[in-house]
Structures are given as structure tokens and as C-alpha cells.
């Protein structure tokens, strides 16, 4: 018998351990199947006609790429027939999509960023899909926006898929963070790392430095101190990485540690950050915390934030616990001064 543990077998074991029910198991299988379809499309590159602009925009005022639209449709179609959802919400759709009456319905809500790292699609750099699963709250109509406005701590599952040199799926159902790699010949995800752990300390940070002049004072002070290196207050040298696909940057951090930061900046003072709380920051925070890391908005824990809007933005500081605490301290101290 094969030594490999497939995603299917892993999920059955999670169900037996009472970590998930059968509906959630099947819902995760549907999402993983959709990611496989997106991975095949990504792999075709220019040959698949997937590159370039779609010529449309999303609710965030961002130009959509063809692959943003394709990935959104793949996820919607797969899940509409899945039978385990009441509604979906996506970065690429203004409002939630209720599962039509003609289709089988379930008790879960799925949120996704169908294609993360859009600026990297056309340059053949790793991109991905991020997803978050919530339960229908008992007291509100489960298909409208209000039903989705639950804090990250209410997530029952979260994950992302990176379409890189290999396609990897990272998943948590609240009992550790686990890695699966797509076996392209067999067409199945295979467990390749159980219980990923993020080292508590790091000497590597990820940030878009070109925004430095727009940051708050404590954010500038923190980065200045990292750049002074061994001779400065941190007493060690730091390396920098920035892929500009959150999935790929977070994947590096889950693999070898580091801190990922997308802080508030004053380029557009009305936007409280670039990344979206519900389908970027919350699922990544769940995965990172389950791997022993930390995640804050610079002041407090992201998964405790009560959401007020589906497409709400938030500053993000996540990764190696001690480093997230260090940068969060710079902000707290500045607030108290
Ligand atoms: O272009 P910048 O400022 O480097 O921002 C990159 C960030 O924006 C994002 O691409 C936003 O996600 P989308 O591509 O899904 O809009 C993140 O993945 C990434 O971390
Ligand atoms: Mg994104
Ligand atoms: Mg996106």
C-alpha cells in the first residue's frame, strides 16, 4: 500500500477525530478540486489565453486580470454544485452570491480571494487562491452580507493554494497547519508536511519598501532599526524579501519564518490598509496562529476584529511571534507617548 496520505484520507481522519463534520470535509474537497482546475489553467500560461487584462474592474476599483475572473468562476461553479454552502463571497464580487434555490444547499459560508498576487500573473511569478470557511449564524438570514460579518476567530477552516514551481495547498481546521503538494501525474493532493511550525525568532522581513515615506512614524522607526542591523538596537542583521503575492510571501514564512507586513499608509487616507480582512488577513492569520506564529493589525490581534464590511481592509503584521510582538510594541509605545 502507498505510504502517501492523500488529502481525502487526511480529511476522513480529521472527521473521525471529530475535528470536522462530513459536510465540511466535502466542502474542502470541492475547494481543493477547484484549485486543481485553476492550477492547470495557470500552468498553460500564454498558451491557455489566460494572461492580460479582463477589461473590467472589481468593487475595490482594481482592474481585473483575465485570471482573476476565470478563477472566480471556477470556484463559484464548483461550489454552487457542492451542496455544502449557503453562500459565497469573493474579492471579485460586490455582494455575496447565495446558492440558487435549484441547487443543493448547506450550512457553511465560503469566502475567497480567487487569485492572489494579480500583478504577478503576467510575469510568471507564484500566485495563489486564499479561502476562509464560516458557519451560518443562527439568527440572521444566511445569504446576506450580515451573515458573513463574523470575526476571524469564528473560522472553521482556512487555507491557500500556491501555484508556483509546485502547487501546494496549506490547510487548517483549527488543529495545526498542514501542507499538501499536488501530484500532477495522479491528480491528487498528498500530505507533505503535518504541523508546520513558524520559528519564533527571525532575521527576515517582507514589506513593500517603496511606500516608506507614506507610513506612520513607528513603522518607519521599526524598519530604520532593522536596517541598522547588528550595530542598532535590534543587535542583528536582517534580510529582506518581497514577492508581492501574499500567498507566496506567507508560504515562505510558514516554511522558514519571517515577518510579513502591509501597514497602513497615507497614500489614500480613507483606506485602512491594502489587504482585505475577510478573505486575505483572517484566513492567513488562522493558518499562521495554528503554526505557532502571531498576527496583528499593528495594535491588536486580527482575528478579534469585529468586521463591519465584506470588503473591509486592514493593516497586516504576521509571522514569527517575537518579531510580530516587536513591531506591535513600536506602535503601542508610540500610541502611549
Ligand atoms: O503591489 P504591492 O503594493 O507590492 O502589493 C502586493 C500585495 O497585493 C496583493 O497582490 C493583493 O492581492 P490581490 O492580487 O488579490 O489584489 C497581495 O497578494 C500582495 O501582498
Ligand atoms: Mg489578494
Ligand atoms: Mg485577488
TrEMBL record:
Major enzyme class: hydrolase
Binding locations of Mg(2+) 1: 91, 113, 115
EC number of the protein: 3.1.3.11
Pathways per UniProt: Carbohydrate biosynthesis
Annotated Fructose-1-6-bisphosphatase class 1 C-terminal domain residues: 198-331
Localization in the cell: Cytoplasm
GO MF, any single term: fructose 1,6-bisphosphate 1-phosphatase activity
Pfam families named in the record: FBPase, FBPase_C
Reported cofactor(s): Mg(2+)
Reactions the enzyme catalyzes: beta-D-fructose 1,6-bisphosphate + H2O = beta-D-fructose 6-phosphate + phosphate
SUPFAM superfamilies per the UniProt record, alphabetical: Carbohydrate phosphatase
Keywords of the record: Carbohydrate metabolism, Cytoplasm, Hydrolase, Magnesium, Metal-binding
Binding site for substrate: 116-119, 208, 274
Note on how the cofactor is bound: Binds 2 magnesium ions per subunit.
Domain of life: Bacteria
Subunit and partners: Homotetramer.
Cross-referenced PANTHER family: FRUCTOSE-1,6-BISPHOSPHATASE-RELATED, SEDOHEPTULOSE-1,7-BISPHOSPHATASE, CHLOROPLASTIC
HAMAP family: FBPase_class1 (MF_01855)
Family of this protein: Belongs to the FBPase class 1 family.
Protein name: Fructose-1,6-bisphosphatase class 1
Species: Lysobacter soyae
Lineage, uppermost ranks: Bacteria, Pseudomonadati, Pseudomonadota, Gammaproteobacteria, Lysobacterales
